[in-house]
Amino acid sequence: MMNYQEVLDFLYTQLPMYQRVGKSAFKKDLTNTIKLSERLGNPHKKYKTIHIAGTNGKGSTSHMLASVLQAAGYKVGLYTSPHLRSFRERIRVDGKEVTEQFIADFVNQEKQSIAQIAPSFFEITVVMAFEYFAQEQVDFAVIETGLGGRLDSTNIITPELSVITSISLDHQDMLGNTLEEIAKEKAGIIKEGVPVVVGHLPASALKEIRSCSKERNAFLSEPGDEADLNQKWNSDLSPEVLKLNIGTVSRAIEQLRKLGVSILLDQFKFGIEHVAAQTGLKGRWQTLRKDPLVICDVGHNEEAVEWLINQISKIKYEKLHIVWGTVSDKLVEKIFPLLIQDCEYYFCAANVPRAMNADELTHLAHSYGLAGDSYQTVGKAYEAALNKAKEGDFIFVGGSTFVVAEIKDL
């Protein structure tokens, strides 16, 4: 019998994991997930689910919805990926991480199935979450897709509600080269007769979502006049993240109410104002220190970086320092032109196989007019930035989920 640490080592080293090895871990069908789930009696059918997809914003939206449902008195499972510090972050019930004991017992129990079916890391993790939620007898499970939608392992569920937060270019090697193609993949979570809520989407992507919704007789809720939500929230989320997702979350709650789910206005307000406290959300425009100001964010694709640069431009500072790393399969030629030139960079590599070598990253960045030095670890880059930053300066940490995950102040 493997203990918890041995189980983690087994999962990380023996199974293909997208976060570590990239595209080779992505499975092109749902067969393995279905087989694993059937062996356990299809645990995902034992509670109500909400399915969240999107290029950006799906993590924040998932946590916000879970928090509101918790505030309304429901027992809520939350499945998200990737994790920042601990594998256990991926699977929570009412904000509490799955136990080490359950993870160890689950993998030991299913070791024969794993050998026979040969699932990916993500496939086994999804079914593990579904089983945990069933054992915990949750009322709702908020399920975030890992990548895309149609072929994502989470897509064996038939939810009460589907949500697509945003659509932009990302993972083109797996999801398609155009917004329309990517929209079609994400629209794969739309089920027959199940209402779907969308955030602000590009016109071409929205057209595809409208078409898919009509084909599947799914009511579509699009952004409208949501000015009443521009009130001042005393939330533990940053105002920037809140503003970005509150409209989508509000309309999602409205659809749940129409389905008979009881959520009062004061419960909605409490849930929105206590998202981090109730669910443990981290890494979304999160302030880590006040002086010098240090903010981190896990956003890493073109749309997310444009938003981040816009947020940085709103902050007053004496000098800007940016700790930045990325993965080798990111299209840096799309990202580098968006980055601020008038600042000092600390280029680094996270401790994952997919990370772009720090020296290679620095060399490429210099060719785009971005000035800064190379550091072989995130920790060394962050320490250097802290040592150089003076009172009134601003340090931003980003470029990759893995970079943010290694910051000691997180």
Textual characterization of the structure:
This protein is an alpha/beta fold and 410 residues long. It has 2 domains: 4-279, Mur-like, catalytic domain (UDP-N-acetylmuramoyl-L-alanine:D-glutamate ligase), CATH 3.40.1190; 286-405, Mur ligase, C-terminal domain (Protein-Tyrosine Phosphatase, Chain A, Alpha-Beta Complex). The protein has helices at residues 4-14, 18-21, 31-39, 58-71, 100-109, 111-117, 121-135, 172-175, 179-186, 203-215, 239-258, 265-273, 275-279, 302-313, 332-335, 358-367, 378-388, 401-405; strands at residues 48-53, 76-79, 91-93, 96-97, 140-144, 161-164, 196-198, 220-221, 286-290, 293-296, 320-324, 344-348, 372-375, 394-398. Helix 1 (4-14) packs across helix 5 and helix 3 packs parallel to helix 7. It is globular. The chain has an 8-stranded mixed beta sheet with strand order 4-3-2-5-1-6-7-8, sandwiched between helices. A 6-stranded mixed beta sheet has the order 9-10-14-11-12-13.
